[in-house]
Amino acid sequence: MTHSTEKLINMIENKISSLPLNQEPQTLFEPIQYILSLGGKRIRPLLTLMASNLFSDDTEAALNAAIAIEVFHNFTLLHDDLMDKSDMRRGKQTVHKKWNPNTAILSGDAMLIEAYKYIAKVPVDVLPEALNLFTQTSMEVCQGQQYDMDFEERDDVSVEEYIAMIRLKTAVLVGCSLKMGALAANSSKQDADYLYDFGINIGLAFQLKDDLLDVYGETAKFGKKLGGDILNNKKTFLLIKALELSNKDQNEELNKWISLEKFDNDEKINAVKNIYNELNLKSIAESLMKKYYLAALNSLSAVSVADNKKTELTNLAESLMYREL
Amino acid sequence: MTHSTEKLINMIENKISSLPLNQEPQTLFEPIQYILSLGGKRIRPLLTLMASNLFSDDTEAALNAAIAIEVFHNFTLLHDDLMDKSDMRRGKQTVHKKWNPNTAILSGDAMLIEAYKYIAKVPVDVLPEALNLFTQTSMEVCQGQQYDMDFEERDDVSVEEYIAMIRLKTAVLVGCSLKMGALAANSSKQDADYLYDFGINIGLAFQLKDDLLDVYGETAKFGKKLGGDILNNKKTFLLIKALELSNKDQNEELNKWISLEKFDNDEKINAVKNIYNELNLKSIAESLMKKYYLAALNSLSAVSVADNKKTELTNLAESLMYREL
Q1: How many CB atoms are located within 10 Å of the residue A66 CB?
Q2: Binning pLDDT at 50, 70 and 90, where does residue A220 land?
Q3: Taking the complete model, does pTM exceed 0.90, yes or no?
Q4: Could you tell me what percentage of chain A is helix, strand and coil, using 3-state DSSP and rounding each to the nearest 5?
Q5: Chain A contact for B116 (CB, 8 A cutoff)
Q6: A88 - beta bridge partners?
Q7: How far apart are CA B206 and CA A191, in angstroms?
């Protein structure tokens, strides 16, 4: 029986709100409760449960793995926000801002350990594989974050390097989420790998969509100010590709805006967006996104279960591609 | 066959220097190689191998667990140094000083994950227990570090709270090191637990010795300046016990030195040390240390292997108690 998305989300939220985090010292555990309570779309644990549900009606076995992944994801947000000096997350103060940097460091460490606590609860026959997958993925996410920070110091990042970076920083955890659900439900190795590939491609498409939304999103729906990446000279797909495709004049104009220390925000956003438009970057990014999306659907269709069982996963993937926030 | 301490240390150093850390991005992995190469006495992994060697000639199985514990220990040093703003470690610059705070955060995270990579390599029949022990211990170490930081903001810390804190921050990892070696060698549960207790008590005694050495060590042998804890108003056993035992005059004098923002270093050290001497704190701390040391030896003697196999462990414990650095 295929469980509804709503039911699976409820399972996740119930489990998260009943995690035994009411522990001493409160100075360590309160920030963990705080960041987990900020919500978010819970996409990763949802993917874990949906993947499990392809092979088994009983999604309980996958729930611990799903929680591990959500706790790990929030750990990365906590440390990344500190490293990026971001003050807000989901409309609320970040942990290092609400408390202090040391709290963010140590509560983050505790979350990474807490994530492993839930990995340790997966069925014992798949524990070694689940543990290795989780450890490899976690390390790759750190590598991705390091590349992302390194890229901000460089002015010669190629599109290939950018894709390799978002694969590590974003896509492998999506792949891991799905594969973990398959493992917990004792799928074949082949099906688990197909789901991993599905996740990698969804993750890549997802990040390209994020890059696009910052520039081409609808303000009202996007909920946060557009153009933040442009203002911060963030090396997104759009900026990297623009630097690659631009003629001499466009290149000089781009670099002028990148190096300016003082500027009018709207003026900078409009100038850079103009160049993106001249270079047709919206449609270039959209075709690449679509390429990954189609590769994802291909991998999903190779999974050896009936198509009607895949509806929830297909719908979720589609909603991620066509989302407006 | 009981392997010599020297041979076991060599195994550890060889394994550490051959860890596959020559990976990309170097900005992530170089700081890990750096801190692991700074040395230290490798006491924890040594305890793992010695514990394993009580039950098995083959210490290879325990070596991965030993490495996991040493990598974890160095991860805690890396993040603690950042949180404590310590610039030097083992005579060299700390990672956040040599690189920057973000590097210390992310390379530290990667070390915690790397530690789990080696836990995952323990024999599969003991993997669930080893994983749970490691996760519980890691979380306790975080709790201990948080209590330690919280205590620095308080002026009413009791001796009982202090002992509970160093149990978490220091002793549980020593206990875990020993129990992990026993698990890897398939000891009985009872023997593994005796070794854990041995480690807890050695760890408590070890920390009291550390507190004593800062004040009563011999400068030449101690290698670093004495009195650092006094200068920083660090809430050690000595200071907490002094605040508890002091009469009105001594208490006022202590609090005067604690609250002074500017002072002559030697003058402050001598004044505080004088009060410690008046209160006989050296011998009070030494008897408590001895109490833990004897409890440790008691637990070790309960382990069901021949006494002559325990010589290396007994010698190591003794050397930790009577060390002068």
Answers
A1: 30
A2: low
A3: yes
A4: 75, 0, 20
A5: yes
A6: A93
A7: 52
Q: Which of B135, B136, B148 to mutate to test the interface with A (most CBs of A within 10 A)?
A: B135
B114 part of contact set with chain A, CB < 8 Å? yes
Residue labelled with tokens 């910052």: A214
Candidate from B25, B28, B138 with C-beta closest to A113: B138
A20 three-state secondary structure: coil
ipTM above 0.85, yes or no: yes
Mean pLDDT for chain A overall: 96
Q: What pLDDT band is residue B224 in, cutting at 50, 70 and 90?
A: low
Find the CB nearest B128 among A27, A116, A124. Answer: A124
The structural architecture, per CATH, of the domain B1-140 is: Orthogonal Bundle (1.10)
Please state which of the four CATH numbers 1.10.600.10, 3.40.50.720, 1.10.10.10, 1.20.1250.20 is assigned to the domain occupying A5-321.
1.10.600.10
Tokens (6 digits) for B89: 């470690």
Q: Which residues does chain A have within 8 Å of residue B132's beta carbon, measured at their own beta carbons?
A: 120
Question: Which of helix, strand or coil describes residue B93?
Answer: strand
Signed CA dihedral, A254, A258, A261, A263: sign only = positive
Chain B residue with minimal CA distance to A82? B102
What is the count of residue pairs from A and B with beta carbons less than 8 Å apart?
A: 100
Nearest to A110 among B25, B139, B150 (CB): B139
Q: What residues contact residue B84 under an 8 Å CB cut-off, 6+ apart?
A: none
Distance CA B199, CA B46 (A): 12
Q: Do B139 and A113 touch (CB under 8 A)?
A: yes
> Which residue is listed with tokens 């500017």?
B262
Residue ranges of chain B assigned to CATH 1.10.600.10: 1-140
CA distance B135 to B118: 13
CA distance A205 to A179: 18
